[in-house]
Specification:
8 strands, alpha/beta
Length: 271
């Protein structure tokens, strides 16, 4: 069974909420990524989303867009991102890794080559922000051959019919975008999220995790009351960017200090 499925089945069985964290590979320096990944796991992160930097990250707000710029300045690529995952797997074979990015680098590599390379590196899932589910069939086929889950986004504006279709294509979990906007936006409406997650529960048995706009323990806890997990990204990327030039271990430790209260808040929801 894929690590994502194993992990979310375990957290659900234990009555815990999953903590999913996002950082951009190669930001603010190349060496920071691997060290931060390991430190995040030690701090209680269940799943890691590793951003593949792209020159036109259309779904990202200013914070993560700058993270992409810094990573690209460090010559970070899809291939080097897979290399980081492979290095992570040398000492951690349990924590799920999802590559989150955009379609262009995947298409340039080719779907079959991407799937095989990602599988060999130890990748568990892929979230391609700008690939519509209607066009994801050929990529899905290659991912399924190697046991990689294809994660899809759903928005507040997603209709019921479209949500049904997306759920039929998706694996691992459904990623519900908590607001109408880009990553890091601040207008989080918890009541609206609760209503939408309840609707999605009627359409699928897949776990539902929520991201965009989660900035601290309070918002993560509020969101996770109805969801299976919370995704935190901009908060961490902003901290890492602010520490450019600092020692790698200091960057990783600073990220951990942000994660600890969020992990504690989610654990307070344990049933």
């Amino acid at each position: 069974m894929n690590r994502i499925n194993q992990t979310l089945a375990k957290t659900r069985k234990e009555g815990r909420k999953a903590l999913i964290t996002y950082i951009v590979n190669g930001d603010p320096v190349s060496d920071a990524t691997l060290a931060t990944m390991h430190k995040m796991v030690e701090a209680g992160v269940d799943i890691i989303e590793l951003g593949v930097p792209f020159s036109d990250p259309m779904a990202e707000g200013p914070v993560i867009a700058l993270g992409h710029e810094r990573a690209l300045a460090n010559k970070t690529s899809l291939k080097s991102t897979m290399a980081v995952v492979k290095a992570f797997r040398q000492t951690n074979n349990d924590t799920p890794i999802i590559l989150m990015g955009y379609a262009n680098p995947v298409e340039r590599m080719g779907y079959e080559a991407f799937a095989n390379n990602a599988s060999n590196a130890g990748v568990d899932g892929l979230l391609t922000v700008d690939l519509p589910p209607e066009e994801a069939g050929p990529l899905n086929l290659e991912l399924q051959k190697v046991g990689i889950e294809n994660i899809f986004l759903l928005a507040p504006t997603t209709t019921v019919e479209r949500a049904k279709y997306i759920a039929s294509m998706a694996g691992g979990f459904l990623y519900y975008v908590s607001l109408k906007g880009v990553t890091g936006a601040g207008h989080l409406d918890v009541g609206s999220v609760e209503t939408k997650v309840a609707q999605l529960r009627q359409l699928t048995d897949l776990p539902i995790c929520v991201g965009f706009g989660i900035k601290d323990a309070a918002t993560a806890k509020a969101i996770a009351k109805t969801a299976d997990g919370a995704v935190v990204g901009s908060l961490l990327v902003e901290k890492m960017g602010s520490m450019a030039g600092q020692p790698v271990e200091s960057i990783a430790d600073a990220v951990v200090e942000l994660i600890k209260p969020i992990r504690k808040g989610l654990d307070e929801l344990a049933s």
